């Protein structure tokens, strides 16, 4: 129940805008055709940005125990290119949102989520989103 309440408050008070920002960068990447791998990451993490409570980002390498194209050398190159063109801007947006949330005590959990998303925004290639095990103990 707490997860649902957190996600609803998050969505109304800023998660919607940051999720749209992720999806906008995803659409821009799709238009270039070359950016399709980044677009996939944008849409996965944009959906996570809409409703982050109860989920957490993990490296696909940690999840599967195997390297794939996004977790190897090509993923590193992809993350460098991402950082230059989009990652820095999304991270700044999440940092500004985090500062706004930290102004109130009630906003601290939301600010922490923004900081997590800011870190992911810097290097999203090779990341995926899974259900959080920790939330099972809270509900």
Secondary structure: elements and pairs:
Layout lengths: L1 H30 L4 H15 L4 E5 H5 L8 H30 L5 H15 L4 E5 L2 H5 L1
Antiparallel strand pairs: 1-2
Helix pairs in contact: 1-2, 1-4, 4-5
The portion of residues forming beta strands comes to 5-15%
Total number of strands: 2
What form results from the Cα inertia axes? globular
The order of strands across the largest sheet is: 1-2
Using only CA atoms, what is the Rg? 15 Å
Query: Termini separation (Å)?
Result: 6 Å
Backbone structural class: mainly alpha
Stretches where pLDDT falls below 50 for ≥5 residues? 135-139
What is the arithmetic mean of pLDDT?
86
Whole-number tally of structural domains: 1
The level of helicity is over 70%
Number of helices: 6
Sheet with most strands: 2 strands, antiparallel
Helix and strand run: HHEHHHEH
Structure description:
Residues 5-55, 77-127 form the Inner membrane component domain. It comes from Marinobacterium sediminicola. It is a multi-pass membrane protein. This is Inner membrane protein YccF. Helices cover 72% and strands 7% of the residues. The chain has helices spanning 2-31, 36-50, 60-64, 73-102, 108-122, 134-138, and strands spanning 55-59, 127-131. A two-stranded antiparallel sheet has the order 1-2. Helix 1 packs antiparallel against helix 2 (36-50).
Summarize the structure.
The protein is mainly alpha-helical and 139 residues long.
What are its keywords?
about 140 residues, two-stranded antiparallel ribbon, about 5% strand
């Amino acid at each position: 129940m707490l997860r649902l309440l957190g996600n609803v408050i998050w969505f109304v008070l800023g998660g919607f805008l940051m999720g749209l920002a992720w999806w906008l960068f995803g659409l821009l990447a799709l238009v270039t055709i070359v950016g399709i791998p980044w677009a996939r990451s944008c849409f996965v993490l944009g959906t996570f940005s809409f409703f982050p409570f109860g989920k957490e980002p993990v490296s696909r390498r940690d999840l599967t125990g195997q390297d794939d194209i996004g977790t190897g050398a090509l993923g590193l190159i992809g993350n460098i290119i991402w950082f230059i063109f989009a990652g820095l801007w999304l991270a700044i947006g999440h940092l500004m949102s985090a500062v706004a949330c930290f102004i109130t005590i009630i906003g601290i959990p939301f600010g922490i989520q923004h900081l997590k998303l800011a870190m992911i925004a810097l290097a999203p290639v090779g990341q995926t989103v899974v259900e959080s095990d920790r939330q099972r103990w809270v509900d």
